[in-house]
Amino acid sequence: MNLMFEPLRKKLTLPLLKAIQNCGVMSSSEEIYKFLVEPPNPDMGQLAFGCFVVSKNLKKAPAVAAVEIKNQLEKIEGVDSVEAAGPYLNFKFSSQFLAESILIPILNKKTFSENLVVDAPKTMIEYSQPNTHKELHVGHMRNLCLGDALVRLLRRSYGNNQIISSTFPGDVGTHVAKCLWYIKNHIGLNILDQKRNSPDRGEWLGQMYSAGNIKLEDEAIVPEKFEKNKKELTLILKQLESASGEFYDLWKETREWSIQLMQKTYVWADVTFDKWYWESDVDADSVRTIKKYFAEGKLVESQGAIGLDFDFTTETQKEKLGFCLLLKSDGTGLYATKDIELARRKFEDYKIEKSIYVVDQRQALHFKQVFRSLLHLGFEQAKDCFHLQYNFVELPDGAMSSRKGNIVPLMLLVEKMQNHVRTEYLSRYESEWSADELNSVAACVAKGAIKYGMLRQDTNKKIVFDMNEWLKLDGESGPFIQYSYARINSLIKKINISIDGGVDKNFDGGLLIHSSEIKLMQHLMNFNTQILLSAENYKPASLCTYLYETAKKFNSFYHDCSISQAETIELKKARLALAMSTGEILKQGLSLLGIPVPERM
What we know:
CATH topology of the domain at 409-591: Isoleucyl-tRNA Synthetase, Domain 1
Distance between the termini: 41 Å
């Protein structure tokens, strides 16, 4: 259940409820709270109540209902005016009340610690399913950033204990066989020995996979070579399945190299998982699980294969999902086989009520079939399984492919972006800042550029990665918002006045009467509401937009209302409190996207 946590809406809820009941209409505080919205023009007030539902019960026009409700309203502390404007009641709050309700909770951190939801379902979010023996590239970052932001947002909304993060790396399969085949047949043991102590051995495996794939495609046009290679790849896969043989030994060693590269990426991205599920651990058990369900009569056989047919029409139901193949006629499993076993483990290991899979849009039919199969097999949680699909990341000249080798390796890109930041933005501080701070800020800005760039687009839209655009300090970018925070931080240090956000506040919020000040406070009011919307709609992009708007509104306020040149020391303190609150909102909001902030830029 969502809580009533926003102070201005809470302030109006009970008086409105009482006034509506005096009009003879029954309602609830939750319903009133939900129908309080922001007017389209901030000059009309901070909140508006639409009288449509009430008017329906009164059997009167909404504009008439608005006037009647206004007449029943008692004086509300902190509200300067209530105006009936057509079907809406518009409420204007005093600057003093706005500051006390919005700025003080931000400054004393209460805004960031209050619960937003109670009795939330225990939820697992599975994301970042990288393959071993491939190189992580910039295209993988959309999944990683999306999943991580979702974990952070839902933990803030539902509570840390209700959200479990997991990953499901692919460490077996044809791609592994191709990599090992190429190393054995076209690289040789001497080079392999050299790579054993190389720091880039994980990246090297990805290059071997691409080279092996291209080599196999080239040789496929020769029938003899095609058959020979096919047999050898089958041999490799059988050794991996039986956990014995020279290829299995090579797999065990090189798998660790890939895991180390994954961990390097996750350390950079500040991502950790509560649970790692491995494809190799699920592989054999998934086949046994499907055979068990078949023996129990829960699955059907078709032309020697086992699965479920979801392509039928009855008097009460119609489905067009096709046949969900779970065991091929040769007895081997597929991705759906593994996902059913994986889901069973998730439900039993963690007693989760909801399961979210962050996987690209190509797998839409696959997950529809898997969720439908789980429901058929008796897993009630299947109705709360959700596939969060997303579109692809492309380079300006087209799509990326590990198979073809046309990728931008992630850690190489990070290094390139950090160098760009140091050269273009930070070179003027070479004589003032320490080398550690220069490197730290460069890393921080590069991370902000990548993560914000990956999150700001709606999930159904393609992302075109453009390093120079993403690193701009103007326009909608991570570095622009980071710079706005750093600018506020520098301003606070320069003015050097202590602002207390405790009970005995030492600033007068009633002095914040300029329209830019009011609009900024009104915008900050919506922070937690925005967090919950972003979390429950699985849309970190909407939080990106909110933070971008926050930075822009601060710039307008800063332009219109001088802090350092304020007419009185009291006005300077009040404006500084507003600036500090904005900086805290930017910092806390970016942290929910996994983006750090530099103290100065």
